[in-house]
Amino acid sequence: MKKGIIEKAKKVHLIGIGGIGVSGLAKILIYLGKKVSGSDNKSSQIIKKLKKLGIRIYLKQKEENIDKDIDLVIHSQAILPDNPEYKKAKELNIPILSYPEAVGELMKEKRGVAVAGTHGKTTTSALIVNLLYTLKFSPTFIIGGEIVNLGNSGVGNGDFFIVEACEYKRSFLNYFPEIAIITNIEKDHLDYYKDINDIKKAFYHFAENIKSDGILVFCGEDKNLNEIAEKIKVKKISYGFTCGDIRGVNFDIIGRKTRFECYYKNKKLGKIEMNLWGRHNVLNSLATIGVGIYLDLTWKEIKEGIENFKGVHRRCEILGEKNGITVIDDYGHHPTEIKVTLECIRKVFPGRRLIVVFQPHQYSRTRFLLREFASSFSLADKIIVPDIYFVRDSLIEKKLVNSEILVEKIRKNGKEGIYLPTFKEIVEYLCEIKKKGDIILTIGAGPVDKVAKDFLKRLE
To answer: What residue numbers bound the domain in which 371 lies?
Structure first.
C-alpha cells in the first residue's frame, strides 16, 4: 500500500458511512480538510449529524455514486466485493482501503493506543481519551460509542491516537500501537472465528504488533490473556482484583458511584470514586491507570481523569426517571455483558422490579451462545424479547434460530420470558404493566433504545 495515501487524497468516499466507526473516521477526514461523501442503506441520527458537517450522503448504494474525481474509497468491514460502489471503484482503479486499514494508516503518524478485548473496549477507550483530554494532551480518537460531551471521534493536535480495536475479521491486525490494552478474551464473532483457540491466535498476533519500545496492558485474571502475555516480549503491566501489578481492592457500589482502592506493586496509590457502576468498570479503570503509569502521570492526575469521566451513551445510561419509574439503556449484546449489567442495576437499585427488554444482535451470535443468553437473565423479573436484529447473517442462518426459541429457553430456566415481535407492541405492553418503582432496562447492540425513548415519552 502506498505511503501517505490518505494524506494525498483530496476527495474521499466512505461506503457504510452510518456505522459508528466509519462515521467517526468521516469526521476526522473532514477536520483534515478532505472533501467527504458517503453512502449507507438507511438514515439515522448519525447520518443526520454527518449531513450537518457538509458531508454528501447517498441513501442507496449504487455505482453512479462513484466518479473518477474520487481519490480514495474507504469501506466498512460489512461491505463485500459485490457491492456496486466497491465494484465501480475497482473498475475506475480508485485506491480502496477498509476502515481498519485507513485507521491503521492514520495511526502511523501518531503514538498509537489500541484497546482490544471481547468486552469493555469502548468504556476503556473512552476513559483513556478522557484522561488525556483532562490533562490537555489533545488526543485524536475513534471509538465505538459516544463519549458524553466528546462524541465518538475527535482530532487533537497532540501526539496520541486512541482507537477501539475490534477483533472481528481480524481488523485489529492493521494497527501497530505503542500502547495496547487487552481487557479480556471470550467466545464471540463465531460467524467468523472457528473457536476460542482461533480467537486467541488473533489476539496473540495483535499483541505481536506492539512496537518494540511499547507496552501491553492486560487483565491478569484472564486465563486466555495470560497465555498470550507470557509469549509477548514487550514491557507489560497486568491488572486485576486478586493478582496483577495494579490491583483494585475493597470495591463497593455506594449510591450511584463505585469506590475502590488502588495498589501498584503492593504500594497503595489511593482511592477512586467514579461515576461508572460495577466490578467490570473497576477493571476498565485499572487498565486506564496502567496507561497512566506507563505515561508517568501522577496519581492525582490519573485520579482526576477517571473521577471526572461522565460516561458513554448507551452504557448503563439512565435515560429518564418519571413517576417513580427509572428507564436505563445499555449496549450489551453478549451474555457476560448482560449478567454484569444486571448485577450493577440490582446493586444500585435494590428491591425494585427489573423488566428487561433484550433485542438479540445477529442470528449467528444468538444461535452459538443460545444457552448462555438464556441463563444470563437470572437477576431479571421479566424479560421481553423482540425479533432478532438482522445484521451480517446469511438467510440460511436466519432460519436456524429465532427469538421464540430464546424465550422458550429463558422460561425453562424459571424466568418469565415474553416474545413480542415489534417495538410498538413492547411499548404498549410496558404501558399496561408499569408500576411505580419499576426499572425498565433496554439492552442490545441494535436500535432497542427506541423502546426506552418511546416509553419515556408515553410516561410524560
So the answer is: 317-459
